[in-house]
User: What shape does this take?
Amino acid sequence: MNPVYDFKGQVALVTGAAKGMGLAAARAFAENGASVVLADLDGDLADREARRIVIEGGIAIGMACDVADETQVAATVDRAVDEYGRLDMAFNNAGIQVPPSDAADEPLDSFERVTAVNQRGVWACMKHELRVMRGQGSGAIVNCSSLGGLVGLPGRAAYHGTKHAVIGMTRSAGVEYAPRGIRINAVCPGVIDTPMVQEMLDGQSDAMDEIMKQQPIGRLGRAEEVAAAVLWLCSPAACFIIGVALPVDGGFTAH
Assistant: This one.
């Protein structure tokens, strides 16, 4: 059973919120009383999921946002503040995979695409969230890195580079903003049963077999388990936690 938090009167922004870990976090924030902005490249799906939260008694809006476009990110943060008056928590979750590639053969467009979303997108989200939180003197941000931000695996140089970068940005901004009442941390999910992972593994049964050999817990993670870590990091229970990269990986990085 997950802890219950009192986020009433607080506002949470989640990117990549239409499915997977982002949706699980958005729903968890709403279930614990927060007003939630669901932002996703698929704005229609984000809007539908927000409406579902409202039907279930929560407070939420959904909107389109391409985090690779800083103008859209700024507009999303502004919309959250216009709608609810403040911004207290953010889960910068939006991210993409690119096909595995020998490092010597990786196409430039793959590198630029994954960097634009996974690295520059997190940078832009933090920048504009902090613009609001700095004025409030409070807030909590959780960035989504990956076990790929903690280790290196063959064929994933560009993707892992972006996830290592997320941890670097988290630590640097974390120590910069801790004296201003804002906590910034990261989660590093392992192999989680989400649509993106399923798409990545389609047709790669050998890859799944290899992954499961390295899963001490013996199963894939669930999106709700990542969401539980995100909510804890945003809650007063984690008030002394600054700049961490928290593995949520079933023990993958422990051996």
